[in-house]
């Protein structure tokens, strides 16, 4: 592809340079190109490339439709996903707490399903869609630095594998580099999330038991009766199933097992999971992800914005990643256009930051409550009053005040239930209340870490922050005793 020659102060290689051609970068590139802007997407890999994140949420229909991509997803035959369901370690086979995700209408939505996708295929189609709409795409080219002049981002340094390197200039630089967080790392703004230290292992399998028609295509989740642990089963095209497990990283490290044995031992913790996996045959290597939750101080600044995972990553339990990627791309597009129209870049970019931050915080708060006490979610899913709130929360797109307010009501109610459960030693909803011998951990309400049962003290002690709780009740002790126990843990 030919680019403009070496650029002077007023000469640009593109209006917007986008680092990364995942869902966030491709969506932004498409929107800009559709409006006649020169968008240049620079992708270090050559698509198709593997990627985790195969279950979409209903809100993504809206952005895909807006950029003219939804029909392509349907035509490609990706498995339609109308709902999500989960069950406990001893639930009867194929019995789920069901959330039909489209039970409540979504304004502007044109179909009652979203998708399970092979990400290598979907991301390739989406990048091609950007190109077909007029965005310029460089693949196999890595951005090695973002160039700043007088505190303003003015372009990037790009490098091809053979060492070819040059500087490219643009009016705006957008970081869509995913969890590599190119720009945030460069600016020293990436902070690890101390509340989540999850570890994920997954692969594709054949001969996994196919869900009955009623649940085929649903996002199926298995609770494993263990703190912060869950598994997924997503049906993909051609009879493949994506199966994965998420646990606290320390549980994997403490197990001393290799990936295969660890995976199998967790599958065995759930009756249903054991059933579906009994004849399963793995058809590609395990894919392992860890330490993936983090926060970034600012999502925009002079001449730059971040979109998708490059701006934050929250735990994947509710499949929020592609929702954040698409909506942050849409709002970044609107912010760029508005900044050019009004000349008020700072104000508009600040508003972009606030809007996305509000939404991602809302995802985060619901996820945190889920981890505090998984059983609660089940209760809320079957409650007549709260079920619509839960469905709306899981549909995605929490980027307006109304939706955030709806989520906040749900979160407050869940928090109140959690507090009640934790102060009642007899409550059957307490972690491991039903099975005290088997699951000797609970979630620390202070930092959401894993608290182990210490036999000699008959108390739980959090591995991370040292807070402790007596075993008979589940009330964590006061701050001074926490401090003492922290010292003891060290
Ligand atoms: C365990 C796990 C499970 C998940 N499950 C789900 C799920 O079920 N549903 C869901 O919606 N989300 C899920 N996610 C999240 C999802 O994977 C991401 O949120 C999504 O891919 C973000 O899209 P993106 O475009 O921001 O980043 P990416 O898809 O990561 O794309 C970034 C692109 O930038 C490129 N790049 C990086 N650095 C450079 C560079 N220096 N120069 C040029 N190019 C560069 C990369 O090659 C990549 O192609 C999951 C994540 C994890 C960790």
Could you explain how this protein is built, in words?
The protein is α+β, with helices and mostly antiparallel strands and 490 residues long. Among the domains are: 14-77 and 114-189 and 295-356, FAD/NAD(P)-binding domain (3-Layer(bba) Sandwich), CATH 3.50.50; 441-489. Helix content is 34%, strand content 25%. The chain has 14 helices and 25 strands. It has helices spanning 23-34, 60-66, 70-75, 119-132, 182-186, 249-255, 259-267, 271-277, 321-342, 345-372, 374-382, 387-395, 401-423, 479-489; strands at 14-19, 39-43, 79-81, 83-87, 97-100, 114-116, 136-139, 141-149, 152-160, 165-175, 190-192, 198-206, 219-223, 230-235, 241-248, 281-282, 287-290, 294-296, 300-301, 304-306, 312-313, 441-443, 450-454, 459-462, 468-470. Strands 1, 2, 7, 8, 9, 10, 19 and 20 form an eight-stranded mixed beta sheet that branches. Helix 1 (23-34) packs parallel to helix 9. The longest helix is centred in the C-terminal third of the chain and has 28 residues, at 345-372. Bound molecules: flavin-adenine dinucleotide (FAD). Flavin-adenine dinucleotide is lined by residues 19-25, 42-45, 51-56, 142-143, 176-178, 180, 182, 200, 289, 292, 308-310, 316, 319, 321-322, 325.
Features:
globular; disordered N terminus; FAD/NAD(P)-binding domain; binds flavin-adenine dinucleotide; alpha+beta; 8-stranded mixed sheet; 490 residues
Number of discrete helical segments: 14
CATH architecture of the domain at 14-77 and 114-189 and 295-356: 3-Layer(bba) Sandwich
Structural class: alpha+beta
Provide the low-confidence segments as ranges.
1-9, 434-438, 473-490
Kindly report the average pLDDT value: 89
User: How much of the polypeptide forms β-strand, as a percent range?
Assistant: 15-25%
The biggest beta sheet, please? 8 strands, mixed
The rounded Rg comes to 23 Å
